What we know:
The protein has helices at residues 5-14, 54-61, 82-90, 106-120, 139-148, 202-210, and strands at residues 26-30, 33-40, 43-48, 65-68, 72-75, 98-104, 127-131, 151-156, 182-183. The protein is of the alpha/beta class. The strands form two sheets. Strands 1-2-3-6-7-8-9 form a seven-stranded mixed beta sheet, with helices on both faces. A two-stranded antiparallel sheet has the order 4-5. The relative contact order is 0.16.
Amino acid sequence: xxxxxxxxxxxxxxxxxxxxxxxxxxxxxxxxxxxxxxxxxxxxxxxxxxxxxxxxxxxxxxxxxxxxxxxxxxxxxxxxxxxxxxxxxxxxxxxxxxxxxxxxxxxxxxxxxxxxxxxxxxxxxxxxxxxxxxxxxxxxxxxxxxxxxxxxxxxxxxxxxxxxxxxxxxxxxxxxxxxxxxxxxxxxxxxxxxxxxxxxxxxxxxxxxxxx
Length: 212
């Protein structure tokens, strides 16, 4: 059984905290990509962290597409160190284990890509929950995730610009969402009016997830 939308949002929020509290079963840092692993009720939860450090923002804007034989063209910055992360994931799961991916912002894009890679490798992913997810790749990734992941949710808070990025250019850069985002029923108020990304903050997504 999936942990649900609120649990997913809470785990995404926990990734922005200090790893030293011992909450995570594993905490991986692969060439600047940070991923937490937590087992709850027998389910493996893998949570890439959203943008927090300067190196994360650099990857956010590194939008030139790169081609992978498994999932097709993806945003180059979002796919950075993907094979190293997948290696760590495969080192802690066994055949038949329940696997779920959660992510906010940059972490959501990475979660989409990791889920697609595992699906192509015939490693079942039972659920993907995304919050404020930018467009991570082209149609091939979208097709894989929608075909092979049975439970999938993607959410956009009203006014959040990040899910609209990178802006697709037909034929030249046809970026699309891995999962079509839904809108929360209410526009959750921004926490600080002067911030361009005020509607993107994870605390607002936790508020929205509590009402799903």
